[in-house]
């Protein structure tokens, strides 16, 4: 089944713009106008979703509260936060509870598509990890405590997300401080989002 992106923002025009740009890049989106609506969608369709792209400032339930709930209930799903420059401190706080990345508005679509592709890769790896560990648990359940199994899975994903965040930060640093013409070809491909692997720190 095709995995989808959940867009969460109270600005209908902005949702349409995001949806159009993501559709061009072969992504299917569904949308919600606030965090509460998004949780209702996730309750019914979380298994169909690999990524949440959410605004921070929204009525009824804002992005901060929504992300805190979504991260606990749906740990497999990646989250990208869209925020204004004045809200950057909150964005940094949310990095500590597991968002994949954040982008300050006005956003660059190329950056959003790049981060979306990376989130898709992370989701695929996490899904693969889960299947492997579930099989491992099924084959060894007489000797392995389920809590230990869950702890191993969580630790793998935590390390994966930490490494990914470091990669994003390094890529942004390179983009801001180096002339692209001076970079080796393999690094250029990574910076441009044209390769399926990440920088190794």
Cα gyration radius (Å): 18 Å
**3D shape:** globular
CATH third-tier fold name of the largest domain: Rossmann fold
Number of strands: 5
CATH homologous superfamily heading of the largest domain:
Response regulator
What percentage of the residues does DSSP assign to strands (E)? 5-15%
Helix content: 55-70%
Q: Major sheet, described briefly? A: 5 strands, parallel
Strand order of the largest sheet: 2-1-3-4-5
Question: Number of helix segments?
Answer: 7
Domain count, please report it: 2
Low-confidence stretches: 194-201
What is the terminal-to-terminal distance?
34 Å
Structural class: alpha/beta
Order of helices and strands: EHEHEHEHEHHH
Let me know the average pLDDT.
76
CATH architecture of the largest domain: 3-Layer(aba) Sandwich
CATH class of the largest domain: Alpha Beta
Describe the structure.
The structure is a single chain. The chain folds into two domains: 4-115, Rossmann fold (3-Layer(aba) Sandwich), CATH 3.40.50; 120-191, no CATH class. The chain has seven helices and five strands. The protein has helices spanning 12-24, 35-45, 63-73, 88-95, 109-140, 146-177, 185-191; strands at 4-8, 29-32, 49-55, 78-83, 101-104. A five-stranded parallel beta sheet has the order 2-1-3-4-5, sandwiched between helices. Strand 4 (78-83), helix 4 and strand 5 (101-104) form a beta-alpha-beta unit. Helix 2 (35-45) runs parallel beside helix 3 and helix 5 (109-140) packs antiparallel against helix 6. The longest helix is centred in the middle third of the chain and has 32 residues, at 109-140. The two termini are 34 Å apart.
